[in-house]
Amino acid sequence: MQRIRKAFAKTLCSLVPNNSSVLDIGTGPGDLLYIALEKPKELVTIDADKRYNTTYCINLEKEDLPFEKNRFDVVLAIDFIEHIGPKERGFELIEQMKTIAIKKVIILTPLIWKKNTKPYRIKTSAYYNNKFVLHKTLWSNDDFIGWNKIYNEIGLKTYFFGEWIK
After folding, report:
1. How many of the other CB atoms lie within 10 Å of CB of 111?
2. What is the pLDDT of residues 91-126, one digit of tens each?
């Protein structure tokens, strides 16, 4: 899994041009984001859990993204959209992401997963007792028809990993 994680970080880094303004939605503890993005011009982060040191603490199931059109070069939603329910709300947020992105939106979401209905109880986990990590919707490649590129070459066969480019 560590090999796949490194390959994903490398691919993600190659998709985000240096000196870009980046919005990361569902940042969590930010462990992968900070490995992958070395030199953004601006990095704005959002998570619903107050424990994470993010720029904004917003529950996006209930609130819209608070940014104007064409605000960020790149919008990231890595392991985020499956935590939003109902699925129609997820589609609404994806459309908002497209509106505020100047260049592209990058999404990673699992295509299959075991039922995850309770918060993590592992005390050493950065997600310990976080009610927002529950999987609420299941996505498929069919949900992303029309996206410009889907990345499968890094071993993420059970994930959708793609980018929508303006």
Report:
1. 16
2. 999 999 999 999 999 998 887 665 555 545 545 555
DSSP-derived letter for residue 84 is: S
Asked if omega into 86 is within 30° of 0 (cis), the reply is yes
Dist CA 103 CA 22 (whole Å): 10
pLDDT per residue as tens digits for the range 44-86: 999 998 888 899 999 999 999 999 999 999 999 998 998 898 9
DSSP 56: E
Greatest extent of the chain over all pairs of C-alpha atoms, in Å: 42
Q: Which structural domains are found in the chain, ordered by start?
A: 2-165 (3.40.50.150)
